[in-house]
Every structure is written in structure tokens, then in C-alpha cells.
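In response to the reviewer comment on reproducibility (Comment 2.3), we provide here a single inverse folding case reported in full, input and output, so that an independent group could reproduce the run without further information from us. The C-alpha cells appear first.
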């Protein structure tokens, strides 16, 4: 890839006690993109972010942040990054404004009151600037974490599970803010359990499970895969084989011939369902029930893992 802003090469992490949380992860992030790291609980998302941010030391591999090695050139690498962690990490007795200004100074940047004010206004925190963190609601505290992460004008922003336990208004503000950051050229990497979240914003999606990065794809390509649906027809009479007249739908027989299954692309203009049902009528094949279901994230993980094993 041409000049990635972030390059992770062969990174593995085995925690004390022997748990291998990351297994030879290779990942390049493009300048200015929004990248969603999708994976179930315990997949290794937080561990991957933590190694990039220098919080966790990888057992092997290298990480380069805009040309700076994340370990040997930690300070410069870290200064490029803003991290919104999953858990609260703020001084409860400080005020909002002092917290955010302090965070900026930590990265060696001089004061820039106009920037801080705009940031706090963007996050609806300006009116609360003199309040102590402990006086804020949970949602407001989350906003402070975002303001802190952006205090030093980083080029890369990590959002670890940004919308877990977050109310609708914060969610909306967050998406708006992300949109504005993107127009300024900030690269954004977020972790999520939710396909919908990746779908809403990301340019590319990486799927991680069991510490392995299974795939990285343009969102549109992945969504096409995720858009598959199944239609199950419960037959009145079980079938031994599929009649050749039905070949074009690539059906399968399940449930010992009692169920006829059609897999189709939910996003396609023509699903093929009306013509299939017509054909079944012509052939005198009757069914007592019809059920459609969408592939779940779980199915997709299973498919990916199986495909990978088969490859
Ligand atoms: N400090 C640690 N010591 C030992 N094991 C750890 C440590 N941190 C995480 N793990 C383990 O490593 C694995 C990956 O954890 P990680 O937090 O990276 O997953 P995640 O994808 O972020 O999960 P979640 O979606 O639940 O936040 C888990 O099995 C976890 O129990």
C-alpha cells in the first residue's frame, strides 16, 4: 500500500499465563480512512489497539505509526494518536476544561484555547467546562474522554467500542464529529461488535476473531457478502433429489428432504423468489411454511473460519 499511516506487521501477543490474544496480525491503515475492526468479545480488538498505542508490548512483530516505530520511538508515535478507551480514565476531582488542557500539554503541545473551545462546543461540553468530572453524567464523562483524546490534534483517532452503553444523542454527536474529523483528514479506527456500526461509517472493515485478523475488505464488498439471506420452504412431501427444472436457483435440501433452502442476495434487484415460487407451483411442489432469515454476524464468522480452514 502506498504510504500507509499505520503499519502493523506480524504482531503477536501472548499474555502472562499463556493466553495468545493476537496471532501474527498484519494490517495497513490508509491515511484518512475510517476503518472498523469487527469482532466478538475477547477477539483481541482492545489488545491490538493497546499494542499500537504502546500500552501493551507485543511479543513479536513491528508497528509503525506515520513512520515512527511504536516501541523505539514511542513518544513521537504516540503523539500522532488519540485514544478513546472503553473504560473511564480521568481525574474525578478535576474540571472538564483543566482535564482537556492537561491532556494536550502531556503531548507537549502549547495551548490553543480556540481549538479547545471548539472541541468542547462540538461535544456539547462547553457549558460544563467548569464542572468537576465527578459531577457529570455517564454520557458526559464519555464525551470528556473523546475531548481528551482529541486535545492534541492527533492524526489518528482510535475509538474502542464507541457506542457501547451510549445514549442516542451522544451517538449522533459522535457520528457528526467523526464526519467532521474525516473531512479534516483524520484517520479513524474503531472497534465494534456491531455490523450496523461498521456499515454506517467505515470505508474498510477488518474481521478479527481468536486473535487472528481473518480478512480486511472494502465495506461495500463485505456488505454484499453479509447481505445473504436464506429462505426455507417446509415441504408437504419430502423430496429425495432436487428436480432439474429448479437447477438455476442452486437450491439445497435440508432436514432429510423436508426443507428446500434457497440462498439469495438480499441487496440484489431481483431476488429470484417470485419466479422460484411460480416454478414450484408449475411443478406441483407444495409447501406448508416459508421462513426467511438473514445471516447473522455469528454465521459470517463461522463461514469465514470454515473457508479459512478449507483454504
Ligand atoms: N492483561 C491481560 N492478561 C491476560 N489476558 C488478557 C489480558 N487482557 C486481555 N486478555 C485476554 O485476551 C483476549 C483478548 O482480549 P481483548 O480485550 O483484546 O478482546 P476484545 O476483542 O477487545 O474483547 P471485547 O469486545 O470484550 O472488549 C481475551 O481472551 C482476554 O481475556
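Designed residues, in position order:
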Amino acid at each position: 500500500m502506498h504510504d500507509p499511516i499505520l503499519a502493523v506487521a506480524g504482531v503477536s501477543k501472548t499474555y502472562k499465563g499463556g493466553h495468545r490474544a493476537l496471532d501474527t496480525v498484519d494490517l495497513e491503515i490508509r491515511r484518512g480512512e475510517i476503518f472498523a475492526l469487527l469482532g466478538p468479545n475477547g477477539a483481541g480488538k482492545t489488545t491490538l489497539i493497546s499494542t499500537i498505542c504502546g500500552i501493551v508490548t507485543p511479543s513479536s512483530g513491528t508497528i509503525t505509526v506515520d513512520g515512527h516505530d511504536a516501541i523505539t520511538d514511542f513518544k513521537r508515535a504516540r503523539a500522532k494518536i488519540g485514544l478513546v478507551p472503553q473504560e473511564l480514565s480521568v481525574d474525578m476531582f478535576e474540571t472538564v476544561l483543566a482535564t482537556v488542557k492537561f491532556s494536550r500539554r502531556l503531548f507537549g503541545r502549547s495551548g490553543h484555547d480556540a481549538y479547545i473551545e471548539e472541541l468542547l462546543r462540538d461535544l456539547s461540553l462547553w457549558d460544563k467546562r467548569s464542572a468537576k468530572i465527578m459531577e457529570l453524567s455517564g454520557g458526559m464523562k464519555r464525551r470528556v474522554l473523546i475531548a481528551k483524546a482529541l486535545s492534541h490534534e492527533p492524526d489518528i483517532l482510535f475509538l474502542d467500542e464507541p457506542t457501547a452503553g451510549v445514549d442516542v444523542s451522544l451517538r449522533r454527536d459522535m457520528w457528526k464529529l467523526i464526519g467532521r474529523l474525516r473531512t479534516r483528514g483524520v484517520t479513524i479506527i474503531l472497534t465494534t461488535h456491531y455490523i450496523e456500526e461498521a456499515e454506517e461509517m467505515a470505508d474498510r472493515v477488518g474481521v478479527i476473531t481468536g486473535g487472528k485478523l481473518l480478512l480486511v475488505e472494502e465495506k461495500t464488498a463485505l456488505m454484499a457478502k453479509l447481505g445473504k439471506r436464506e429462505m426455507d420452504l417446509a415441504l408437504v412431501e419430502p423430496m429425495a433429489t432436487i428436480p432439474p427444472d429448479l437447477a438455476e436457483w442452486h437450491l439445497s435440501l435440508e432436514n432429510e428432504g423436508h426443507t428446500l433452502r434457497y440462498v439469495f442476495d438480499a441487496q440484489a434487484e431481483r431476488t429470484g423468489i417470485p419466479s422460484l415460487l411460480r416454478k414450484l407451483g408449475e411443478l406441483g411442489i407444495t409447501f406448508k411454511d416459508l421462513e426467511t432469515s438473514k445471516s447473522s454476524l455469528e454465521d459470517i464468522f463461522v463461514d469465514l473460519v470454515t473457508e479459512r480452514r478449507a483454504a
